[in-house]
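Ticket #4471: complex job returned nothing on first submit. Input attached below:
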Amino acid sequence: MKSVTCTAPVNIAVIKYWGKRDTELILPTNDSLSVTLSQDILHSKTSIAASKEFTEDRLWLNGKEEDITKNRRMHNCFRETRALRAKMEQANADLEPLSTYKLHVCSENNFPTAAGLASSASGLAALVYTLAQLFELDISTSELTRIARQGSGSACRSLFGGFVAWQMGQEADGSDSLAVQVAPESHWPELEALICVVSDAKKGTSSTKGMQSTIETSPLMAERLRCVPGRMDAMKKAIHERDFQSFAELTMRDSNQFHAVCLDTYPPISYQTDTSRAIMALIHEYNNSSPDGKLKAAYTYDAGPNAVIYANKENMREIIQLVAHYFPGTIGTYFTDPYKVIGDAPLGQDFIPKAHSTFNENVIPVFPAGSVSRLLHTKVDDGPRVLANPDDSLLNAQGLPKRLA
Amino acid sequence: MKSVTCTAPVNIAVIKYWGKRDTELILPTNDSLSVTLSQDILHSKTSIAASKEFTEDRLWLNGKEEDITKNRRMHNCFRETRALRAKMEQANADLEPLSTYKLHVCSENNFPTAAGLASSASGLAALVYTLAQLFELDISTSELTRIARQGSGSACRSLFGGFVAWQMGQEADGSDSLAVQVAPESHWPELEALICVVSDAKKGTSSTKGMQSTIETSPLMAERLRCVPGRMDAMKKAIHERDFQSFAELTMRDSNQFHAVCLDTYPPISYQTDTSRAIMALIHEYNNSSPDGKLKAAYTYDAGPNAVIYANKENMREIIQLVAHYFPGTIGTYFTDPYKVIGDAPLGQDFIPKAHSTFNENVIPVFPAGSVSRLLHTKVDDGPRVLANPDDSLLNAQGLPKRLA
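Support reply: We reran it on our side without changes. The output follows.
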């Protein structure tokens, strides 16, 4: 039995992907660009074992066995990677015929799937990356992103660390629709993120359904598609120059435009709640009262109510204080903070940064405790990791899950 | 002393006005179209007295005296109507020189101004209409709308009953930017409206500031401006044919597109709350479960959280039952119902119409009592009215307010 275990990170787009021109191949209607967040905080972990003893492909997701044949998107990833392995085996008879073996796949997220934290992107990225390691595929990461894209569109962006662009491509077969690294995580290590998990998230429209409905019914979507190329260029420039001002404004504008075309969809799609919008208002007030007039934080929202706030490390402490004052937590569940930014400072004291003398304290009310259920403090970081220690595997020596739900 | 008292109605747009191409003359960036609602429920009332004894122009708004010289928009309306009167007096020496007299103006809304119910439109319409009556101006209503427009843009649409279009016009001096009646109230008397006043309305961005910010910063606004002419044609056709299906879909789409360009503004503008969006979801579920697949209700939202639901009379009873179930009122404040649609039926019983067998009862939760603070049931109705009975005047025989706040 051959077994490999890997983790893959979550990515949060700053130029949003919304709309497919081909739903089977998952080819998007526009380029997108994301930041890869640290696997120390959020990751999907996948173990895959191949053995000639196995009688069927089996899949366990978060401790529950699922019917692999019913998951067409995962199936696409199996088919594509096996085909590449089969070619290698044809060319080299010494290779073990792994492409003919059945596989056992076990995958887990280290965060609740229901939290709406881009789990499908990290999950499919972990699957495809682990398959590539298992089969020892001799292809570049960008070539691999073509396969991940067919599992879950935004998964292609989780195969790189740092700053990643998904080029929509032009070809009908999707051969040029792949992800490339714009800059590695080492380029801008000061960039950090604060994920505000908004509780009581109403179950919204799925991204898959929602984006097709936008393409079909939103008159404003055509204009968004004309906007994106210019925004991609400007965002790449901002990243290359570590220009937080441009990065922040573009990030907020693009998040808002994405939610605007959702609202222009018929029937309309609404992912943000009053809590989401209050966080937006808070960040604008924080920026507006910045002593030198410079933006210090930028929010972005995926297809859900959770805010992700990007900021430079030097400002993150005061941003956490500010958010924690207006959205008090419930004890024991609030922080995951490997950077110890908060230290021993009691939350709620001096929540307005001293330099922000024009800050309007009444911009939003203090929300009921738990309106934001968790704050996750993280940073830009690397791409998928191989875990060599067998103790890290989710599968035991028999190729079965160590833990079931 | 000569004195006149008039009332003017509220109008609620189904194709929204948002954006000025000239902020001084109040010339819009697109045509708009509204429905005039009954003055029996909502109106602004204005009394104006002219006397050579008066020493200065004076103004009382909702019982409080205000400095008329500081209200530039009202001042525009005074200047324009006085100029027309002066011309008449020059041509006919027998006319009383009212244009040289000082005026006392007293105006009240029969609803809280803070409720966000288009009070500036009805208020300025009442002012201009009363001035025209006082001065016995010999001009058409459409010519008068040009003056009302300079007081408050959407006020021009409150000078007609029924269905009213504000033509944006092309001229730089605004001479062709005026309102015309698309159809009188008698054309579609079955059309009714339910105003859902959403409480705890956060004080949002003013319309005046908000629309200019959209013009300056929203990339999607250009596409909206390209959309509106086609929507105006389709809406006029729907009204002429009393085609509720087209009327309803266009109304909801245009409301959503207006709020979409607000969200695409930088910084973003947000007028709707979770309660607003829940009402939208409820109306879509109600329409989706309609037994013959036909739309039975349409929502629209101005620059605030309150919903206005348009429906044909035959469906209004079940719509009120439905809304009242999910948004329970607090006793004594809920209904203003001159049409007695509810009768003696207890609210909350059989809230899902029997024919809607596929209605998903869990589409939204039941909201806390008072989330919708008032339901106002009204209908399409006539334009401004002259009140001939002196008892109806807000001014006494000395030209001073009968009541002060």
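DSSP finds eight helices and 17 strands in chain B. Closing as resolved unless it happens again.
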